Amino acid sequence: MVTVEIDSQSGFCGGVIRAISQAERFLSGQDHLYSLGAIVHNEAELDRLGARGLRTVASIPDVPAGETVLIRAHGEPPATYAAARGRGLTVIDCTCPVVLKLQQHIREAYARLHADGFHGTLLIFGKIGHAEVLGLLGQVDGDAIVVESRAMLEEALPSIDFNQPVEIFSQTTKSPSEYAEVCGVLAERMAAVRGVPADALAGALTVHDTICAQVANRHGHLAAFARSHDLILFVAGESSSNGRVLFDLCRRENPRSFRIGSPADIDPAWLLPGDRVGVCGATSTPKWLLEAVAGAVRAL
Ligand code: SF4
């Protein structure tokens, strides 16, 4: 007999819960609301909210003048707010408070890096083209280097002046271990250029701990959850970047990990008699979908 357990820490993060509840509150009194980009990277949840009147648009000019537009938890660059004002839109700003603080810290770092004749470098460890990263870049008029991986940082190293100060931030949903590796490479190169030990770079290299605590805490917990089950069903939308990071973690810990979008994706051949099945997901996976997947496994 197969047993099923849902990971207690999987499901929406605080930022997504806040954005969705604000959209639902608005839609309880109106028949439609425009969302700038997908409010959550999960197709099933988008279908549910779409049926309630949430219309996803790609850019501000897609919103009819005078309407209301919701800014999702990822945040936006200042140019978006200016464009919304220009069209006479009412803005429901659901930028996650954690992202708002990160945007502010990036503006402050940029000012420091260019104060008193310095020409320092601002680095962002994040996914190129991701909405949160675009919002961060917009705080400094795009004057930062974005790297997605250690390999990308190594390519960028020759363009960084290590005799000037360097500050690095991470997108909130990146992997803590990959960020630590990237920062290690950065410190090594700076130490080599300056001819000092890597632990003597205070004031020259500033590493900001900006991975969201809700995400960082999930890594250790999810790794243990994946190890303690025979089979893992990881539920996430196709476009969820946090989903990719967390699924890779599950697969490293448990090779019998499968990524699915809905109960319909479960292949009964994956299950063996006596399996302890773990169901988990990303910060963009709704609890109701995790429960539907667990129910489908029980029915099998
Ligand atoms: S992952 Fe963290 S920072 Fe990002 S939206 Fe969720 S709560 Fe906010």
Structure description:
There is one protein chain. The protein folds into three domains: 3-10 and 214-299, 4-hydroxy-3-methylbut-2-enyl diphosphate reductase, catalytic domain (Cobalt-precorrin-4 Transmethylase, domain 1, 3-Layer(aba) Sandwich); 14-96, 3-Layer(aba) Sandwich (Rossmann fold), CATH 3.40.50.11270; 98-171 and 175-210, Cobalt-precorrin-4 Transmethylase, domain 1, CATH 3.40.1010.20. Helix 8 packs parallel to helix 9 (241-253). With 300 residues, the protein is of the alpha/beta class. The strands form three sheets. A four-stranded parallel sheet has the order 1-12-10-11, with helices on both faces. The protein has a four-stranded parallel sheet with strand order 3-2-4-5, sandwiched between helices. It has a four-stranded parallel sheet with strand order 7-6-8-9, with helices on both faces. 41% of the residues lie in helices and 17% in strands. Strand 2 (33-36), helix 2 (43-51) and strand 3 (54-57) form a beta-alpha-beta unit. The structure holds iron/sulfur cluster (SF4). Iron/sulfur cluster binds at residues 13-16, 73, 96, 98-99, 172-173, 212, 214-215, 283.
